[in-house]
Design a protein that fits this description.
- There is one protein chain.
- The chain is α+β, with helices and mostly antiparallel strands and 282 residues long.
- Helices cover 49% and strands 17% of the residues.
Length: 282
């Protein structure tokens, strides 16, 4: 069944216009992608898991106020929330710790609904990250590098391939495990509308736009490099055999080697290795 015009408009509003809407005449898309979903959505899912553990532990403590292990685990998972998500995770984690302290100090007990606050922040993070992932767009065309991101307000910017000076990949160990990394497009330009504080899209000092958490980053760099440096051919390095030595040259080299050995300038092992190399070149 064909989609109605109204549903099509709603879809475009929810996820942003498709890449084709940003192309000029004759321009073609060479690569299109997004940040790795496991990283973007994973933080919200992890916060949700921590929040459910917190809710369970606080409920157990509310039922048995002598259960100090439950309150200890609840505070611990709140501490784990803070580095998991630098904004909402920080707020949710600190709120959970404050509620746990309140529950311990208030001898009469507090309402169980207060324990839902960290979970509410976790669900908010998960929903926001889902919307962000549906709207973000990384595109390489034969003319430009296009970037779009945002939740409520969509930000858009493009860089002409003639403005890009080099492309760099950085793979921290925790990203390399999952096969993704950060790609930096170094330019000589200014910020040009890119919000350097937004997750997933940054503009580094000196004019380097970065795409964070991109899957298979080296394959993306190959595509970008082919566009930025058209006509370039890969350089092949071939192991060339060492040229042969004449008996006279070999004799002189062996004599020099003996003198170095007698003066103690090289070890016995080094002497034997060099002597073997000289004899092999005869």
């Amino acid at each position: 069944m064909a989609k109605s015009k109204g549903s099509s408009v709603v879809s475009r509003i929810a996820s942003g216009s498709p890449p084709s809407d940003y192309l000029t005449g004759g321009e073609t898309v060479k690569w299109q992608g997004k940040p790795a979903a496991i990283y973007i959505l994973g933080r919200g899912l992890l916060l949700t898991a921590f929040s459910l553990i917190y809710l369970t532990c606080m409920a157990l403590y509310n039922a048995d106020r002598a259960n100090l292990l439950a309150i200890g685990i609840a505070v611990f998972v709140c501490i784990l929330m803070i580095p998991t998500e630098r904004r909402i995770g920080l707020i949710g984690g600190l709120a959970g710790i404050a509620i746990a302290v309140w529950a311990v100090l208030d001898k009469s007990g507090i309402g169980w609904y207060w324990f839902l606050i960290p979970l509410a922040f976790a669900i908010l993070t998960l929903f926001g990250n889902y919307i962000y992932l549906s709207r973000v767009m990384f595109v390489i065309t034969d003319r430009r590098v296009l970037t779009r991101y945002g939740i409520f307000t969509l930000h858009y910017a493009d860089i002409g391939v003639d403005k890009i000076q080099n492309v760099t990949v950085m793979e921290p160990w925790y990203e390399r495990i999952f096969g993704f990394g950060d790609i930096y497009f170094a330019t000589a330009g200014e910020k040009g509308g890119i919000d350097y504080e937004s997750p997933g899209i940054k503009l580094m000092t000196g004019g380097a736009v970065s795409w964070e958490n991109v899957g298979k980053p080296f394959e993306v760099v190959k595509v970008a490099s082919a566009i930025i440096h058209p006509g370039a051919t890969p350089v092949m390095i071939v192991n060339q055999p060492m040229p042969q030595m004449t008996p006279a040259n070999a004799q002189d080299r062996l004599k020099e080697l003996d003198e170095l050995m007698q003066k103690g300038l090289i070890s016995k092992q080094e002497y034997e290795e060099k002597r073997k190399q000289i004899l092999e070149r005869l």
